Amino acid sequence: MTTNQLIATPALRAADQLFTLRNGNDMRLTISERGAALVSWWAPDRYGKVADVLLGYRDLAGYADNSAYFGAIIGRWANRIAQGRFMLDGAPVQAAVNDRGNHLHGGDAGFHKARWKLNASDAGVSLRLSSPDGDGGFPGKLDVQVHYRLDDEGRLTIDFEAVADAPTPVNLTAHPYFNLNGGSADVGDHMLQIDADFYLETDPGGIPVGVAAVAGTPFDFRQPAAIGPRLGWPDAQIRLAGGFDHCYCVKPHAMGRTGPLREVARVVDPGSGRRLQVSTTEPGLQFYSGNSLDGVQGRAGRPYARHDGFCLEAHAYPDQLNGQCASAVILRPGQVYRQTTVYRLSLQS
């Protein structure tokens, strides 16, 4: 039976709290109200040794800035918008720009830096945030709720909801960095599988320029393959991003819209035996191989190196606001935005 325990956090101001979800198998997941961030996820390996499989800062003060987005909830817009510009009901909108002239992850003052209002119960932990009109350049007041649940099967279910008082884009995601070996090495040996025939090629700024087939490319993870060797393939897209930072079309039939919850990716660390499964309602899954981690101060008093962690972020397509399915990501008054992503951590049988 899942149990919960509130933990004091003297490293931050008293208003900043941590909350730990603990399941019946003594798996522990710690969440901060700062950025609604996943701070730690302690889980055993095949030998019973428990380790934290999430990357994070050396102390809680790092989450006040969180330039790496460690574990945070991202909004209002996850991923990128070209030049931060888009049209909404015939009117131009300019969102904040913070990444090579483009909008990324809500801008420098996005949801990842906000202090969310935390409410804990036996059913899990809920966090709420009210984003005012004009926040990050986006129109309308947006009220957001994120609910975390951890069950005895190792499933972390993340349910998102949002309502707005005016038409506005909404595209939320969770941004945990995983390393299933607990940080004893980089993620090169991790075996990744993604159920997608297509991915989005990008320009130097990370903006999609077209849909490409994965077949015959380093992006083909339809069968399990180690991440490390693919980073060295002589591929223009890999060179451009310094690794993987691309969105996979895990539900191309959905035309950029949400659909039923289904499993879309799996990762196994052969050394520890830990396995991560990802399920989502979203059409896109961003695979990021930690290309910019080099020098970021992490746990154990040492900086992270490139490819020390990976992200699998479920959300709408990058720059979808400027594509054919823009209407699918506009939330209007009277509507409710809903999204579910599930990360399941277990041991390979």
Automatic annotation (TrEMBL):
Annotated InterPro entries: Aldose_1-epimerase, Aldose_1/G6P_1-epimerase, Gal_mutarotase_sf_dom, Galactose_mutarotase-like, GH-type_carb-bd
Cite the CDD domains for this sequence: galactose_mutarotase_like
Q: Which reaction does it catalyse?
A: alpha-D-glucose = beta-D-glucose
Pathway(s) of this molecule: Carbohydrate metabolism; hexose metabolism
User: What keywords is this UniProt entry annotated with?
Assistant: Carbohydrate metabolism, Isomerase
The EC number(s) given in the record are 5.1.3.3
Record-linked Pfam families: Aldose_epim
Record has Isomerase as a keyword: yes
Which family is it part of?
Belongs to the aldose epimerase family.
NCBIfam families named in the record: PRK11055.1 (NF008277)
Please give the name of this protein. Aldose 1-epimerase
Organism field = Massilia rubra
